[in-house]
């Protein structure tokens, strides 16, 4: 559940003050005990190879391994480095990056962070937010190296409001200074986005997450983007509609012209799928609203696109690699039912020689969406 508007503003006000003032206590380099360096290396040094370093203007790659001595220099604010989480197909940590890539305000980024972190923690995932100059990072750790097969479930859950770092791309690690302004400390934050006073004690008590807890996100409604503005791309049936015909729910407007939904429509819609008696329509709604497939992607799904274990759905993308989505058990069950007796290359929604048209998919989405708005 997202924060209400008054609660969000209270948190954001606290966070904004903290974000502007939390660096002053770290103006001088801290004294680092060896036990802290060892713990930091245990958490972050899964892949030490070819780390990145900032020279005050740009990042550059250092050919060689980051050592505990390099990490200590980072913690003493003498250098700023970044690491990659992936080594030999496994990770010990991953990061979510909340940043102003499209000109979002600090309040918007903060609201997204608070909502996503709260949802992940409700799912039992240990999240560790950190200040990151223009935005925030959220760190998730694992007790042993794990294969990141669960990343599609995580990306589907958090939406497109943050980037997930779980591959070869390097990212600045926490408890150092911001590369573009070294008077600014990038430390771990509490639930109100205030810097945690004893960073080293917090580091020692970081708890790992079990990969199964991230896999289980596949069975929960997507939570992102947060309640600031949610863009649903499949609703082309709103084009050229007059702006005066804007529907409302609970006094909150829906901007049809820009397809921006200023309330928590996504979880609200997902919770009503079970009320649709037509199983084919129910699957169309799931694909459109939960996975946010376009009408064209939906009608072109084939029997072979569902994995043998029924947990993954591959969606063909023109001129690029197919996208893979983790899907819920009930959606996979409907998919199998529609596929029964059909060859692997046959379209799932095809009946005889007749297939769903894109416009039919759009009408199903439109009718359900508008009936949901009317309550």
Name given to the CATH architecture of the largest domain: Alpha-Beta Complex
Residue fraction in strands: 15-25%
**Low-confidence parts lasting 5 or more residues at pLDDT below 50?**
1-27, 225-268
Fraction of residues in H or I helices: 25-40%
The residue-averaged pLDDT reads: 77
Broad shape: elongated
Could you spell the SSE succession in H and E letters?
HHEEHEEEHEEHEEEEHHEEEEHHHEEHH
Q: Characterize the biggest β-sheet.
A: 5 strands, antiparallel
Terminal Cα separation, in Å? 19 Å
The CATH class of the largest domain turns out to be Alpha Beta
Radius of gyration: 23 Å
| DSSP summary: helix tally | 12
Describe the structure.
It is a single chain. This protein has 375 residues and is of the alpha+beta class. 33% of the residues lie in helices and 20% in strands. The chain has helices at residues 5-21, 34-44, 68-75, 106-122, 151-158, 199-204, 211-215, 265-270, 279-290, 295-299, 329-339, 358-374, and strands at residues 52-54, 59-61, 81-83, 86-87, 90-98, 128-132, 135-146, 163-165, 171-172, 176-178, 181-186, 230-231, 248-249, 252-255, 260-261, 312-317, 320-326. β10 and β11 (181-186) form a beta hairpin. The model is unreliable at 1-27 and 225-268 (pLDDT under 50).
List the helices and strands and how they pair.
Elements: H1 5-21, H2 34-44, E1 52-54, E2 59-61, H3 68-75, E3 81-83, E4 86-87, E5 90-98, H4 106-122, E6 128-132, E7 135-146, H5 151-158, E8 163-165, E9 171-172, E10 176-178, E11 181-186, H6 199-204, H7 211-215, E12 230-231, E13 248-249, E14 252-255, E15 260-261, H8 265-270, H9 279-290, H10 295-299, E16 312-317, E17 320-326, H11 329-339, H12 358-374
Helix pairs in contact: 1-4, 2-3, 9-11, 9-12
């Amino acid at each position: 559940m997202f924060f209400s508007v008054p609660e969000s503003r209270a948190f954001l006000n606290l966070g904004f003050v903290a974000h502007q003032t939390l660096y002053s206590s770290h103006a001088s380099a801290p004294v680092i005990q060896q036990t802290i360096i060892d713990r930091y290396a245990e958490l972050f040094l899964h892949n030490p190879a070819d780390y990145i370093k900032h020279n005050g203007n740009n990042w550059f790659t250092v050919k060689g391994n980051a050592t505990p001595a390099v990490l200590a220099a980072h913690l003493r604010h003498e250098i700023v480095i970044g690491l990659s989480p992936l080594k030999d197909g496994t990770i010990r940590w991953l990061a979510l990056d909340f940043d102003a890539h499209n000109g979002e305000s600090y309040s918007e980024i903060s609201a997204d962070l608070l909502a996503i972190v709260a949802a992940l923690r409700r799912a039992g995932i240990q999240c560790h937010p950190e200040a990151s100059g223009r935005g925030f990072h959220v760190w998730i750790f694992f007790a042993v190296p794990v294969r990141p097969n669960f990343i599609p479930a995580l990306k589907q859950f958090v939406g497109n409001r943050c980037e997930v770092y779980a591959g070869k791309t390097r990212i600045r690690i926490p408890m150092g200074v911001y590369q573009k302004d070294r008077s600014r400390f990038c430390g771990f934050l509490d639930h109100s986005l205030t810097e945690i006073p004893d960073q080293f004690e917090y580091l020692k008590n970081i708890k790992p997450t079990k990969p199964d807890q991230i896999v289980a996100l596949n069975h929960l409604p997507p939570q992102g983007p947060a309640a600031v503005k949610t863009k649903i791309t499949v609703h082309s049936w709103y084009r050229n509609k007059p702006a005066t015909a804007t529907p409302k729910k609970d006094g909150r407007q829906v901007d049809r012209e820009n397809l921006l939904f200023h309330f928590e429509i996504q979880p609200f819609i997902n919770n009503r799928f079970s009320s649709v008696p037509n199983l084919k329509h129910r699957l169309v709604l799931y694909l459109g609203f939960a996975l946010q497939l376009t009408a064209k992607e939906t009608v072109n799904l084939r029997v072979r696109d569902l994995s043998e274990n029924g947990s993954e759905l591959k969606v063909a993308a023109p001129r690029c690699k197919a996208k893979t989505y983790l899907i819920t058990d009930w959606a996979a069950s409907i998919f199998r039912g529609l596929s029964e007796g059909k060859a692997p290359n046959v379209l799932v929604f095809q009946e005889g020689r007749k297939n769903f048209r894109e416009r039919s998919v759009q009408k199903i989405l439109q009718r359900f969406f508008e009936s949901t708005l009317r309550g």
